[in-house]
Every structure is written in structure tokens, then in C-alpha cells.
Write a structure and sequence with these properties.
Blueprint (H helix, E strand, L loop, with lengths): L2 E3 L1 E3 L2 E3 L6 E5 L6 E6 L3 H18 L4 H17 L1 H12 L3 H18 L2 H4 L4 E6 L2 E9 L2 E5 L7 H12 L3 E5 L6 H12 L7 E3 L4 H9 L3 E7 L2 H13 L3 E5 L4 E5 L5 H13 L9 E7 L6 H9 L19 H16 L3 E4 L18 E4 L6 H4 L6 E7 L2 H10 L2 E2 L1 E5 L3 H10 L4 E4 L15 E2 L2 E2 L6 H7 L1 E9 L19
Parallel strand pairs: 1-5, 8-9, 8-11, 9-10, 11-12, 13-14, 13-19, 14-17, 16-17, 19-20
Antiparallel strand pairs: 2-3, 4-5, 6-7, 7-23, 12-22, 15-16, 18-21
Amino acid sequence: MTTQVKHYINGEWILGQGDKQIAVTNPANNETIAVVNAANDAEVLSAIDSAKTAFQSWKEVPVSERARVMLKYQHLLKEHHDEIATILAQETGKTFDDAKGDVWRGIEVAEHACNIASMMMGETVENVARSIDTYSYTQPLGVCAGITPFNFPAMIPLWMFPLAIACGNTFVLKPSEQDPMTPQRLIELFEQAGAPKGVVQLVHGDKTAVDILLTHPDIKAISFVGSVNVGQYIYKTGTDNLKRVQAFAGAKNHCVIMPDANKQQVINNLVGASVGAAGQRCMALSVAVFVGAAKEWIPELKEAIAKVKPGLWDDKDAAYGPVISPAAKQRVVSLIAQGKAEGADCLLDGTDFTVEGYESGNWVGPTMFDKVTTDMSIYKEEIFGPVLCCMNAETLEEAIAIVNDSPYGNGTSIFTASGAAARKYQHEIEVGQVGINVPIPVPLPFFSFTGWKGSFYGDQHAYGKQAVRFYTETKTITARWFESDIAVASAPNMTIDLK
């Protein structure tokens, strides 16, 4: 049965009148499971206008009442957790356990939004000068927008709109057209949580819808997660139109393995962090730098990765699912071929992998290269597939230089038993998120997701305190009151005035 995906505009669920119809396909067999009519210009403009109107009343709602909406929402998300994960798995191809993790990491941010009152507190100094006090308020911006990717259709939207709305803004969400059913369910539950009409809008579409959001004067801030080229376009276009922009772009995350590390822990963690989720996550460990004698572990790592088998979302034995689309598979396969042609040693080649009965799916088996150098395409480009590139370094200093020379700075990890090596690494490395014996160091929501360099364009990062600053403006008041103006109280009037 084919589902008709809907837009949510001005508190109404509509099919949309756009001329372009987008098919949503099951990555396991490329059969159509849903269709969506891309929003036309009038519908996107209507969503923005509705959000602008709703902002006038929503910004006046007491912060405690906004927090109660979030409390109700996080409860509903938990109640429907497995249902959302099932929808997500079917349209992304993720395994059910992976899909549940996607949903849960989003729920954690919705939980964090329940604490919005304390995060929006201003500052006060009494007597900054004689009889003069200064204090600040944190106030919402207006209409904000989010443009989200296919690989985390629950987590990334939940990074954005709960905090933005809890701050007193209204929000227009434009999710990936490749898996729009999960965001639709998120908005349905937000409506059920008691969000007033117009506070959140959901529009589906392509670049046409995005460009309207980027250029419309009533959109005050844009949040984006996606590829490098699109991230640069979002940032440049948005800022050219005088908007705040936080654009999370590409990554090439390195794991440095010291010879004193726990070998089995390294192997176990590298397998999941490199090929898990079919490598389709910006925090995947796609490069392993083995320092000194640690390179002797590569054959054992190969054996472990070779045992990994992709499969269907509801196959409990499947380690990961297909990549999202035929185009994504073709890109991964092409880069694998380039790696071979450029001289890397292909230890495992998943190019021809298929799942019985689902041969038309977007399958790529676990792939592993050794003797990769920094001038190779498989090193320079974000493959976004289940491909691990292995490199060698003689010293920790050499490994640090390799990582710091990368144009990206999203995440990195070091595995070591040495506190001194870990301290040196975390201090000298030019990457925003560092794991020490932790493979994927994504911080919990009371911190912020802090990619650096070419992995992020903007100033304030996602969720945590930085997101609150991104979605708000500070108003500072300096006040003087004169004691001579204090009125003298008169005696109480005990009679009834009959006039």
C-alpha cells in the first residue's frame, strides 16, 4: 500500500497542490512505499505567514507553559518510540535497533527542552553605577526553519524544532524528501502534545522550497544538516539574506589507535563505528590511523569486519541495511573503484554484495582498504558508505598531523591506555568532538554538537546551551529609579463614596 505524505500548514494536514510528485522508495528493493506532492511556492509562503502570525501569541506564552508542552511531547515520543522506529526503518532501510537509537537520541533533546526556563535566564548586576541596575532578558527571534537530511529523519529534526519552539519561536521544518514519513509522525505527535495552531509547520519539497526559506525576510534563522556543497550553499545564501545560519556539513572522522590500547576493544568498536548504519552518519569512523605496532592488528580487524552482514530492517541478525538510494550506491561503488585504481590495498570489497530476494536493493557489503594515503579520493571524500580506510603512522605526533591536516573537524577518537597520550591528543587535535576510548563521541544534549572547520559553518552549534543562544536574542536594560519619586502613601479611606 502506498502512503500519501502530507504537509502541515496553518494547523491543517494537506496533500499539497504542487506539480512535482516525489516517490519515497524502500531502499531494500526500491519499490515505492509513499508519494509526496512537493509544496508549491504558495504553500511554502503560507507556512511562513502562518508561523509569523502564530509567533505573535506564542512568544507571550509563559516559559513554564511552553515547557509543559515539551513534557507532554517527550512522553508521547517515548510512548510511540517503537512505532516511530518502525516507520523510520522501513523508509531508510536501517535495522530496527539502529532506528530505535535514532529516535532515542532525538527524544533526549526533547527532554532537554523541558528545562527551557533555566536555560533562558538572563543576568543581573545591581548598582553598576550609583542607583543604576543592569539586567538582561533572553527573547525569541521569530520564525525559524530547519532543513534536515535523510540519514537521521527523527534525531535531526528533534535537534531543532523542540528547542527553537521552547525558546518562544515558531518553526518551519523542511525534511529530506527521501524519508518524509518519520518527520510527519513527529509533527503529528507534537500537535497531539498541545502545540497551538501555526507554531510548527511541515513542508515537503526540493531546492525550490529551500530557496524560499533561505531568502524570505520573515525567516530569522536557518538550521541545516547535510552535505558539504549544500551546507556551503545554505550558509552563503542564508547569510547573504541576513539570517542566522548553523550549517552542519561533511566529515572525515579519524580514529587513532595506539599500540598500548586494548586490542579487542579497538576491533569491536571499529567494526560498528565504521560500517554501522551502512556508514551513513556524519560521525562514522571512516579512517583508522594505526600507530607503530598497532598496524599488526589490521588482519584481525579485517576478519571481524568480514563477518558483518547487511540485511533487512527486521532481520535480527542484520548488522546494517542498504544505503538510501541507487545514486548513493553508485557513488560508493565508484569511490571503491577509484581507491583500487589509485593504489590502495582493498582487503574487503563489498561492491557485489546482495541480499537474497532483494537483489534490486541498494546493498553495499563491508569494505576495507589498507595503505591509504592522503592524496587518494577515498581519503579526501566523504564516502558515506560502509568503507573503512586504514593508514599507518610511526608516532602519535605523525597521527595528529594527519588528522589536523584534514579540512574537516567533526569528530575523532583515540584508543590508548596512556593518560598522557590521551591528554596530548585531546589538547592538540583540531576537531570539535573527541572520544577517548569512545568510538563515536556524540555529546548528550546538555552539551552541544560541536563540529569544527569544514564540518560546520556558523557560530552557535546544535542543541544544548549554544542552541538556546542561536534561537534567541539578548535584550539588556539599564535602569535608574529616583528615591525622590517614591509616592507618599495616604491614609486608608474607610467611607463609601456615594458620588
